[in-house]
Amino acid sequence: MEIKRKLAKLSPFFQSAAVIAISALFVVSIVYAATTIGSSITTGGNLTVTGWASSTSATTTSYLYIGADGTEPNPWNFQGGDLYVQDDVFMGSQATSVASLWVGSAGTADNLNLTGGDLYVQDGLEVDGNLYLTGTSALTGLLTFTTATGTSATTTNYLMVGSKFTLPASWDYLEDFSVSGDAVIANKATSTVALWVGSAGTADNLNLAGGDLYVQDDLEVDSDLIVGNKATSTVALWVGSAGTADNLNLTGGDLYVQDGLEVDGNSYFSGNATTTGRLAGLGGINNFTTTTATSTLGLFVFGNTGTGTSTLGVGSATQKGCIELTGGDALYYRIIVDAGVLNVVLGRCN
Question: Where are the domains of the chain?
């Protein structure tokens, strides 16, 4: 009975202890599941969250580190509002930087002061949409576009359009321009130095200055070709789209004319002039001159010691002249001067 009375006295204590234990277990369970801070929390040490944390706003005057520890880039100094994210960052709206944005963990910004909205990309940059540049674009490497449109494009190095191909010897990657496909220019194409057509060849007679044009292979002009100065060919010049050069080897400066040739001025021949048709001189004076004496009979070409005003000179003081005539009856007659006597005899001059 004594023990029963003592247990009865202790019963309220056990009941209270049980209530406290159950309450503590409930509070611990609630705190473990979620903690809600109504106002603010201040800690002098570290705040560690082993699960996840949700906040309408988070502010730090030092730095914010999200994720496992990693290697921070060079600008990171653990103060002044640094943010480190170990994995991906997703932003539902604009991402704005009042100073600059650095993409990559290393590198050196050689041309940027990293103020006023600069963007530095350590490695490659791919833009699937449009890229608009209102300032100057400076490149030390290669910039590749599928298509590009701009009001102006400037480079102090070189510009390549299309796929890379075998470049000519004059290409030195300094202020050069290459197009692997067609280049269409709607207005004038101007070169203040020279224009080279072809990927090889040698300009033997040009200094490639002052507006020279070098064509490695053939040149076809469907309309007029106007040459303000000398036109020179080291091989031959063919005038016409057809014909056959029966008496020329088309080397060493030959001229072939398919159809008629009209000379309004003087025509000088230092070699032989041969015709299978007629040679007609309409008015004026026919002056055939040579500095080389000849002993063959025929129409003598007199020396360049003077020009008659109304006569045809055949022969000279050192060479007899001969004029050949035919009467159309298959007989030829020659007119010669022999011992001071004019003779007309049967036969040809040579």
Answer: 58-90, 94-124, 284-350
